[in-house]
Prior knowledge:
It comes from Caballeronia glathei. The chain is an alpha+beta fold. The protein has helices spanning 3-19, 22-28, 45-53; strands at residues 29-36, 42-43, 57-71, 75-88, 91-106, 109-120.
Amino acid sequence: MDENGIRELETRLQKAMLASDVDALDALLADDLSFVDATGKVWSKADDLNAHRYGVQRIEQLDVEEQSVRVYERCAVTVTRVALRGSFGGAPFAGSLRYTRTWCEAADGWRVVAAQCSLIPF
């Protein structure tokens, strides 16, 4: 996999997040995913999928402001700054976040195995 391929996977992930497309997210996230949100809470894949499936999390805007990609033999690391707007648990949110994601190659394709996001103060 090269940098362009990882950027394509990132784009697919972002589109799936915007659409709350649980099937697409399921295909892109590793079964043993660990995601640390901006509050420090650790989410599993099931937690993330259920937040989309049941409307707990709705993303209305996700604009990539910058992104770096580093590719290794069977893994890659992306660092992406986004402007994000939506709602969580019915409460609206908006802000800039920086996501760090680790993608790894498995027998059935490339998946996000770990991720973390941080709030970027204005």
